[in-house]
Design goal:
Layout lengths: L5 E6 L6 H14 L4 E5 L5 H11 L8 H25 L3 E5 L2 H11 L4 H12 L6 E6 L2 H13 L18 H17 L4 E5 L4 H18 L2
Parallel strand pairs: 1-3, 1-4, 2-3, 4-5
Helix pairs in contact: 1-8, 2-3, 3-4, 3-5, 4-7
The structure holds ligand Z5A.
Length: about 220
């Protein structure tokens, strides 16, 4: 267990490989003796998972960008206050599949909500709370969408109430804006972000992630 809690987020477009790498990181950290909490956004608590359904399910609703942003932050507040902060207070490593950077990328860069509004609401909800380390898995849009489609195609047939594809169904130009958005955010916050070329093999990416986490955890004691 670390002396202080540590918060790691993973960001990237569709099919970047976040879920795959997060599972590997959890196993590696646990085998080194850390207590780890794996969570995701939107969601992570039963209440926030209810909001997730509204946002990502095919029949979740027709929200404009600002309403989406407010729903993501409502879910995030519950998640941070009732799960992430308490786990960090116990000295755990929290790994989150997406966090606030996804809101800036999807709702601001993708859907055109003003970054000033994003910054104001982020300050109200999170204050200065932020991940200690954020991995951006960067992959060309066409490759990420192909990977993501492969996963969706391999599952059994689901109803519109079950399938989580409200964002995958947006056009390629949306996903291009998203990719540039993530790269812009990462370039602004170089201390927190580590950008990884997600075209590398799974093992090469895992090694980059483990090296970065190792360095940063040593600084965290
Ligand atoms: N959203 C938002 O708009 N605003 C917000 O604030 C937040 C979220 C928090 C939640 O989706 C949606 O909500 C999301 C943004 C929006 N949009 N969508 N869709 P999510 O996070 O639950 O789902 P996702 O991001 O789409 O996950 P994904 O498509 O499953 O991607 P992934 O987790 O990054 O990839 P993966 O499942 O690990 O890998 C996909 C496939 O690629 C799989 O077959 C792997 O074996 C393969 N893969 C992975 N890495 C490699 C490499 N290196 N080489 C070859 N193949 C690979």
């Amino acid at each position: 267990m670390t002396a202080k809690g540590f918060f790691i987020s993973f960001e990237g477009g569709e099919g970047a490989g976040k879920t795959t790498q997060i599972k590997r990181l959890k196993d590696w950290l646990e085998s080194s003796g850390h207590a780890v909490i794996l969570t995701r956004e939107p969601g992570g608590t039963p209440e926030a998972e209810k909001i997730r359904d509204l946002l990502v399910k095919r029949d979740g609703g027709n929200w404009d960008g600002l309403t989406e942003l407010l729903l993501f932050f409502a879910a995030r507040r519950h998640h941070v206050e009732t799960l992430i902060k308490p786990a960090m207070a116990e000295g755990k490593v929290v790994i989150c599949d997406r966090f606030a950077d996804s809101t800036e990328a999807y709702q601001c860069f993708g859907h055109g909500v003003s970054t000033d509004i994003y910054a104001q609401i982020k300050t109200i909800v999170l204050g200065d709370f932020a991940p200690n380390l954020t991995f951006l898995l960067d992959v060309p849009v066409n490759i990420g969408l192909k990977r993501s489609k492969r996963v969706n195609d391999s599952t059994t047939v689901l109803s519109d109430a079950e399938v989580e594809d409200r964002f995958e169904r947006l056009d390629v130009s949306f996903h291009e804006k998203l990719r540039q958005g993530f790269l812009t955010i990462a370039a602004r916050e170089t201390n927190r972000f580590k950008v990884i070329d997600a075209l590398q093999s799974l093992d090469e990416i895992t090694t980059c992630i483990e090296n970065a986490v190792n360095d940063r955890l040593q600084d965290n004691v």
